[in-house]
Specification:
With 96 residues, this protein is α+β, with helices and mostly antiparallel strands. The protein is built from one helix and five strands; from the N terminus they run αβββββ. The protein has a five-stranded mixed beta barrel.
Length: 96
Amino acid sequence: MNWSRFLLALAFVCALPVSAGAATVSPSSIPDGTYTVTVEKVVDAQHVQVKMDNGSDTTLAAGKATVNFSKVQPNDQLKLSVISGAVAVYMDLTTH
């Protein structure tokens, strides 16, 4: 048995979950629609970093002056509408 090939294959398999979980998408590439997301980090009142249902990470900006993320917390579930890569409206599904 060729141990160097075995170790290389093992290293490749071990690295797969790490690289698959690190997918970051541009907000402009998200089709307009309604999504349920999990908050990872509140950057500021106008920006929130989220994990999409498909496992992708992205940072979304408020699309209107009335959208404010200051009361959102990490791990909150949000239902939001994205239009042209920005959040038009959202609802926090998490009870505090």
